[in-house]
């Protein structure tokens, strides 16, 4: 990598050294000197070559990784990411032929060409921004970000598990349930009894199980309060299971408890208190206590969907509702769709003691196991080995970089407001003026970028302001810039 020697970092000042290294690598990628898949020098070698401290290069590589320009892997050379915007072909043709990764390769390896390849930005995203559709609808995390060695080790553990002439436990493998309980103790402030942890096929299945348990316990269709706007797939799962839904408005502090109390008797309330979906508000502790007191006094079950609590970008972590629950009313729902891969279709429910939770256990047992045992073994290995925690630390940094880019690009744009940026993997952009969300979504799609209209999450028409939801979990920073350019252009402010 002699090309790096062409620009020495100024050693006379400490301030700005990291930024100079970052800028130099970015420029070399953009002008085609470095191409997708090229290896960068080790941090130690580049530090010697540039005459800077190794920590400066480490910090630069971390920033470039977080921005999506390069991918770093422990024990392997940092490489230029697939899908970043680069210059034309090199004059010498170097890098024109690259070994394609075989189908089924582990996340973190270079993807093979074809539909959906590239940086993992979701279905239909090609390898060259500007030439293929960029899917920025919410729901896809950075699936390819996990270290390949950790991913492979998890599936080796699944393959090495002894074969058994038996059915899986419908409540979930004990090792996975124990790993989930330990992780919650570390990250969410409560360590549940393993016997109260159920493995489920994702959040939607968890919610349908709760409805089934309530229906069997009550002998009628349960009335369930939901946030408006809120999680539409969860609403579909609950109505399919026989629930009658009651929309409750949300404000800047999450679900409106006064409006909930005025909505009439309900059997359960489902909410996303840590990062309201999709508007992003965080329910403060005082309101959480009010909600729990109301639920205990009325005998109402509280279903806490803790869907992306691992990704807090701003402010102090807020305790889970389950950590504050002294009356045994909270059913805590979580999963691996936002932390690893939604295609695993694996989540969990943590139940308190009581008749309704017992009915949920009975419903789970009656349905039989839904998550394949090898998937459960692999997830248990990721938890037990610490690989999941390492992965979360890595992608949390990456997501924070993307959140900061959105805030920087949209800050000060007249008439626009960026919401939901305190955590999670999506942003909500709202505006004043006559433009409808449907029209903006259509114009953005015409520019090759897919986003979702905020009105799609409404229970009652008109409950949400004009806006769109943009998922950024799987985007590189250059792809995110492209998406924001398309959105601003669709709004006529780009």
List the helices and strands and how they pair.
Blueprint: H1 17-30, H2 43-50, H3 54-67, E1 70-73, E2 76-80, E3 134-135, H4 148-160, H5 174-187, E4 197-200, H6 203-218, E5 223-228, H7 232-240, E6 244-251, E7 254-255, H8 257-261, E8 268-271, H9 285-298, E9 301-305, H10 321-324, E10 330-335, E11 347-350, H11 355-367, H12 373-385, H13 387-410, E12 416-419, E13 426-431, H14 437-446, E14 449-450, E15 452-453, E16 467-471, H15 477-490
Parallel strand pairs: 3-14, 5-6, 5-8, 8-9, 9-10
Antiparallel strand pairs: 1-2, 4-11, 6-7, 10-11, 12-13, 13-16, 15-16
Summed up, what is this model?
The protein has 494 residues and is an alpha/beta fold.
Write a structural description.
- The chain has helices at residues 17-30, 43-50, 54-67, 148-160, 174-187, 203-218, 232-240, 257-261, 285-298, 321-324, 355-367, 373-385, 387-410, 437-446, 477-490; strands spanning 70-73, 76-80, 134-135, 197-200, 223-228, 244-251, 254-255, 268-271, 301-305, 330-335, 347-350, 416-419, 426-431, 449-450, 452-453, 467-471.
- Helix content is 37%, strand content 14%.
- Helix 5 (174-187) runs parallel beside helix 12 (373-385).
- The protein has 15 helices and 16 strands.
- It has 494 residues and is of the alpha/beta class.
- It has three domains: 1-90, Winged helix-like DNA-binding domain superfamily/Winged helix DNA-binding domain (Arc Repressor Mutant, subunit A, Orthogonal Bundle), CATH 1.10.10; 151-385, 3-Layer(aba) Sandwich (Aspartate Aminotransferase, domain 2), CATH 3.40.640.10; 395-490, Aspartate Aminotransferase, domain 1, CATH 3.90.1150.
- It is globular.
- Residues 87-111 have a biased composition (Low complexity).
- Residues 15-83 form the HTH gntR-type domain.
- Pfam families: Aminotran_1_2, GntR.
